[in-house]
């Protein structure tokens, strides 16, 4: 045994030549036997602070790091009692731990637990036990940083009690009236965080349900319609428990989330149309995301570009219209420059039924905010279009979806996209990129969907009323 310790000591010495200090070396008495000890000094830190065990430093014996029981136990708030007659040390902190000198087991509340090395009596007066077992018993996490001879001890992160977890009991889907709905049910209220992953394989929406244990067996639903690929659910993490719902789709689709009053049911619905395979034959809408490429438009809070926001909203509007049976054209699908006159020209040449230009406002003062719908004045310069009715319907439907400041309608005879177009046209100033509150909304994916949804609803109403004969596209 002595030889083994000596060889180990030499080995550790060679391995740790760079270590700085050997304050504790020479002969020590281990369980009554003299041992030559020559190992670099070992440091203990507890939550980053050095913990000094005084004249009884941590030791490495037979490859096991052992630490003085009393100074550490008491330092960490346990009571420590030594019974010399039975060579037993009792440590109490929540549970009762008993260590026995020379024995490689302990008892925890009376139950025997194996130790990696026996409890030792050093220099005939100080009991030592394996460091990891002791710190973990007292509610700490331990890391041994070998190259620094450092025992790094940290308070355990408290995990929420498992009783606060809910069980996910149902994962299902349904389809009705063009709406595809994915449902998650639990035996308690569901709370969640959501996110989106975009990569070459498409778009994945995910919802992380907090403190939720996944208890369903059907973990995957194949959808494969209207751009929706599949949905699946699984345990993402156990402590704390997080169950993740993922919906994968080929492109970003609009959705609505509803939860029951008691929050035990979570529904996400996608409007994928009645028959996504048949080609659209509805009115032709020309969507015009403003600016682009070398023309970023207004630059707002945090350097955001009007052109990028307009494009994001325009593409969402296109998705809604495509799924809703409309035919669509769009002036750009990427951040590219399109000439100002090219936009109305394209719409005119294609015989579009309506023209929707999407922009953001800007002003010197950050206090200016809100949403405005611009249109060409009825009858101006002999124009025969009923622009005001169209603008009013778009405006009213848009403001039902969003709660920005309502700046109403505004007549703009000089705007090219309004005076060169031959069909009904609006220019929607969705919000001010220079307003901190508007800017935050405008860059939010969900808010962009709401704007698109509002404009979409307006277009649906306009063309329904046109068909019903309750309105006309021209003034008479
Ligand atoms: Zn603009």
Short description:
This protein is of the alpha+beta class and 476 residues long. It has helices spanning 2-15, 69-75, 131-137, 306-323, 342-350, 387-401, 416-419, 436-442, 445-468, and strands spanning 25-30, 33-38, 43-46, 49-51, 59-61, 64-68, 79-83, 88-93, 95-100, 105-108, 111-114, 120-122, 126-130, 140-145, 150-155, 166-176, 179-186, 192-199, 202-210, 212-214, 220-225, 228-237, 242-249, 255-259, 265-271, 284-289, 327-330, 354-361, 371-375, 406-411, 424-432.
Written overview of the protein:
The longest helix is centred in the last third of the chain and has 24 residues, at 445-468. This protein has three domains: 2-155, Copper amine oxidase-like, N-terminal domain (Copper Amine Oxidase, Chain A, domain 1), CATH 3.30.457; 162-271, Immunoglobulin-like (Sandwich); 284-468, Zn-dependent exopeptidases (Aminopeptidase). It is of the alpha+beta class and 476 residues long. The protein is elongated, with a radius of gyration of 36 Å. The relative contact order is 0.08. Helices cover 22% and strands 39% of the residues. Zinc ion binds next to loops.
**What is the total tally of β strands?**
31
Q: Ligands bound here?
A: zinc ion
Specify the biggest β-sheet: 6 strands, mixed
Q: Which geometry do the CA atoms define?
A: elongated
Over the alpha carbons, how many angstroms does the gyration radius reach? 36 Å
CATH class of the largest domain: Alpha Beta
Approximately what portion of the residues adopt beta-strand conformation? 35-45%
């Amino acid at each position: 045994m002595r030889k083994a310790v000596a060889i180990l000591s030499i080995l550790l010495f060679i391995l740790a030549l760079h270590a700085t200090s050997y304050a504790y070396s020479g002969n020590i008495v281990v369980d009554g036997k003299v041992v030559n000890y020559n190992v670099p000094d070992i440091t203990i830190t507890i939550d980053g602070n050095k913990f000094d065990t005084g004249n009884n430093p941590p030791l490495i014996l037979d490859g096991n790091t052992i630490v003085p029981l009393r100074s550490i136990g008491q330092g960490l708030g346990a009571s420590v009692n030594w019974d010399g007659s039975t060579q037993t040390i009792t440590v109490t902190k929540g549970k009762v731990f008993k260590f026995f000198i020379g024995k490689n087991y302990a008892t925890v509340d009376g139950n025997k637990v194996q130790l990696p090395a026996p409890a030792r009596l050093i220099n005939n007066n100080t009991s030592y036990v394996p460091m990891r077992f002791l710190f973990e018993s007292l509610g700490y996490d331990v890391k041994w940083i070998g190259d620094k001879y450092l025992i790094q001890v940290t308070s355990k992160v408290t995990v929420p009690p498992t009783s606060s977890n809910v069980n996910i009991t149902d994962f299902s889907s349904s389809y009705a009236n063009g709406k595809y709905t994915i449902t998650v049910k639990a035996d308690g209220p569901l709370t969640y965080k959501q996110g989106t992953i975009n990569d070459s394989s498409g778009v994945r929406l995910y919802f992380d349900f907090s403190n939720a244990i996944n208890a369903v067996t059907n973990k995957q639903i194949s959808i494969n319609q209207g751009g929706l690929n599949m949905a699946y659910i699984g345990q993402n993490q156990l402590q704390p428990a997080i169950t993740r719902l993922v919906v994968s789709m080929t492109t970003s689709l609009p959705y609505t989330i509803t939860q029951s009053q008691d929050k035990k049911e979570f529904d996400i619905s996608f409007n994928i149309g009645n028959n996504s395979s048949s080609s659209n034959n509805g009115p032709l809408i020309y969507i015009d995301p403003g600016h682009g490429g070398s023309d970023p438009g207004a630059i707002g809070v945090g350097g955001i570009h009007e052109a990028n926001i307009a494009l994001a909203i325009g593409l969402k509007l296109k998705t809604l219209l495509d799924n809703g049976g409309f035919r669509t054209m769009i002036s750009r699908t990427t951040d590219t420059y399109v000439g100002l006159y090219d936009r109305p020209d394209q719409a005119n040449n294609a015989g579009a039924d309506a023209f929707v230009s999407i922009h953001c406002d800007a002003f010197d003062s950050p206090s200016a905010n809100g949403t405005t719908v611009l249109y060409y004045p009825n009858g101006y310069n002999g124009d025969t279009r009923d622009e005001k009715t169209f603008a009013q319907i778009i405006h009213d439907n848009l403001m039902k979806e969003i709660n920005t400041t309502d700046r109403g309608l505004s007549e703009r005879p000089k705007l090219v996209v309004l005076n060169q177009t031959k069909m009904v046209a609006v220019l929607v100033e969705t919000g001010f990129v220079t307003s901190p509150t508007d800017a935050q909304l405008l860059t939010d994916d969900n808010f962009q969907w709401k704007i698109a949804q509002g404009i979409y609803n307006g277009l649906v109403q306009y063309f329904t009323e046109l068909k019903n004969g309750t309105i006309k596209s021209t003034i008479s």
